[in-house]
Each structure stands twice: as structure tokens, then as C-alpha cells.
Amino acid sequence: MTTFADPIPAKRRSRSDAIQKAAIAIAVVLFAAALLAPLIVPYDPLAQSLLSRLRPPLGFERYAPLHLAGTDELGRDVLSRALYGLRLTLALAVAGAVIGLLIGGTLGLIAGLRRGWVEDTIMALVDMQIAIPFTLVALLILSLMGSSLTVLVLVLGIAGWEQYARIVRAEVRKLSALPFLEAARTAGAGPLYTARRHILPNLVSPLVVQFTLALSNIVILESTLSFLGLGVQPPQPSLGSMVGLGRDYMPTAPWIVLTPAALIVALTFSVQTLGDWLRDRADVRLRDR
Question: For a FRET experiment, which of 72, 104, 283, 286 has its CA 20 to 30 Å from that of 240?
Fold first, then answer.
């Protein structure tokens, strides 16, 4: 009896692959634009020109410079500010994700290797972090300690450490039951040597996936805080602060908000899709479907 393969899963897989490739391409372009922003911006992002304020995108005026994405309420070039804002937003997000990885990975490793009250205490902190809406915690910390970049990076760093801790603890407990670790402990290997030699190399794949997924969440958190006025402070541009400052001009000059908002959407979508792709590649069960 002849059987035919169902074309629907193949079409769905092909569509999903196309979306993932497009998202990866967008992510590469955005990271390159952020990295090369000082070289490719057409104007100084802080330069003001009241004679050019609220100029629409591609608005042509004789003997006046051309602004591809228009100008804001102070005559600053929106495209230049958006690219520098993308650069700062990505830098803050990467720094916060690295801090979260170090804190959560270390605590998760300790919880996985040390049982008893140490593990219970760390997991209680994880449950507390999950139970409390972190945006409210971030608003409280920034209100009390100020909105400097140092404080902001620390706040972003503790935003998602509990996810790393849970992943590392689960992986360590699973690896600890494998025969090769039992053999290493029987041979006299200490906890530090076991963690460095046998456990940490096996944690790279899940941590890279979680790092990528957490990056988009931190971008949204930083944009939210800056939108509310508690993140990056003017005149230094970030994507969230540009949206926050431009919301009063939405009826008359929507381009002030649309350009940074589009970059936020493109960045979070591409990074989140990249994280899903990495997860599918790392998980053998998902890869073989």
C-alpha cells in the first residue's frame, strides 16, 4: 500500500524556517547598526536646531539638510538618535543579561551541588523572585537610589537571575546522577573540580539559549523604565526614552515615536525568535520533529 507524506507539516516547517531566517537576518542587521552607529549616523544625535524642529521624514526644504526619519521637538535627527538609542539599549541589555547569568548560574550551581538548607534557601529566593512582579521592584529601587546607569544596569542584572538558577540546578541534579560523575567522585574528585571539568561544559547549551531569551525581556524592561522616566535620562537617547518623550507629539509628529518603537519591536522579535531557534537546535527531541 502506497502512503503519501502529509504536506501540511512540511509547509509549516518551511514557513517556520523562513521566519527564523528572516529574524536572524534582522538581528544581525540591528546588532551591526548598533555596533557601527558612530560611523553611520548622519547627524550628531545631541545636536539641536530649533529651525528644523518637527520636520517630517524625507521632508524637503530648500537649502535645508535632509532628515530621513524626520526631527523631534528640539530639531534633533530622529534616525541618529534611534541608532544611538539602539546601541545604548543593547549595551544595557547585554550587561544586565551577563550579570543575571553570573548570579543565577552561580546560585543554581551551588543549589545543585549542595543539598539541604543551602538548596532550600536558594530555591526560596527563586520562588520569591518569581512571585513578585519585578517591574514594581525595579520602579521602587530606581525611585530610592536614582536613575544612574550603574543602578540601572544592576536592576536589569537581577531581573531574570532566577531563570538561570532553576535551569542550572535542574541540569546539575540530572548530571549528578550519571555514571561518569559517580565515577569521578569515586576517584576522589572534589566538588570544584567536578563542576569545572564535568558539569560546566554541559551547561553551555541551555545557558546560551536562556541568555538569548532573557535578552529580549531585558530590552522590554529597560524600554519600559526609560519610557516612565526612571531609566536612561535625557539628553542621552535610548529607545524607551525616545518613545516616552515623543508620546506628547503623537497627534502632530508620530514619526518621533514610530522609529524607536519599530526598532524595539524588531529587536525583541528577532532576538526572541533567535532564542527559539537555538532552543530547537539544542533539543534533540525538537530537532528531529
Answer: 104
69 pairs with which residues across the strands? none
Helices and strands, counts by H and E, the chain: 13, 0
* DSSP code for 71: B
Give the DSSP H or E segment for 16. helix 7-35
Helical residues (DSSP H) of 146-251, grouped into ranges: 149-157, 161-176, 179-186, 191-194, 200-227, 239-246
| Amino acid letter for position 265 | V
Which amino acid, 134?
F
Is 187 strand, coil or helix? coil
* pTM, two decimal places: 0.84
pLDDT tens per residue, the chain (289 residues)?
A: 444 444 546 566 667 778 888 888 999 999 999 999 999 998 999 999 888 888 888 865 554 578 888 899 998 999 999 999 999 999 999 999 999 999 999 999 888 888 788 889 999 999 999 888 888 889 889 888 888 888 999 999 998 899 999 999 888 888 777 666 666 666 666 666 666 666 777 788 888 888 988 898 999 999 999 888 888 888 889 999 999 989 889 988 999 999 999 999 999 999 888 887 877 776 544 444 4
Q: Which of 278, 220, 276, 273 is nearest to 92 (CA)?
A: 220
